[in-house]
Amino acid sequence: EVQLQASGGGLVQPGGSLRLSCAASGFTFGSFDMSWVRQAPGKQSELVAAFITGGRINYADSVKGRFTISRDKSQNTVYLQMSALKPEDTAIYYCENPVLKVRGQGTLVTVSS
Questions:
Q1: pLDDT 10s per residue in the chain (113 long)?
Q2: Which partner for 81 in 27, 34, 48, 68 could form a disulfide, CB atoms 3.0-4.6 Å apart?
C-alpha cells in the first residue's frame, strides 16, 4: 500500500520557519519525483514545490526564495524547508506522488501573530 505521512506543521509567527517532512512507503521512492501542494481555507490546491524531470525543481512564484524542497532517498523522505513565513502561507500542506496520484493526509501550517 502506498502511504505518504506528512508531519512538522504547527503555529508559527510571521517571519518564522518550519520544516515539513513526508515519509513515503509502498513504492520505490527513488524512482518517482515528489511534490508538495497546499490548500488554504476556501481556496483550490496550489503546487508549492516539485521535483521534475532531470533533477530540476519547480517552485510556485509565491514561495521562491523562501521555500526549499529536498529529499533523502536513503530515508524515503521528502522535505519542505519554509522560511520567512507569511500569513498567506497558512494552509494544509500535502506531499504527493503525482505519477501514482497519491496524496498524503496533510499537515496544517498556521502563520499568525
A1: 999 999 999 999 999 999 999 999 888 888 889 999 999 999 999 999 999 988 899 999 999 999 999 999 999 999 999 999 999 999 999 999 989 999 989 999 999 99
A2: 68
Query: In this structure, what C-alpha cell is assigned to residue 80?
Result: 519542505
What is the rounded CA–CA span in Å between residue 92 and residue 38? 5
Neighbours of 106 (CB within 10 A): 19
In this prediction, residue 97 carries a pLDDT of: 93
* Residue 34 CA: distances (Å) to CA of 10, 16, 19, 84, 109: 22, 25, 16, 23, 19
CA–CA separation, 40 and 54 (whole Å): 30
Cβ–Cβ < 8 Å for 2, 26: yes
- Give the residue ranges of DSSP H helices in 1-113: none
Q: Are 86 and 111 in contact (CB under 8 A)?
A: yes
Q: Running DSSP on this structure, what letter comes out for residue 77?
A: E
In angstroms, the CA 60 to CA 57 distance is 10
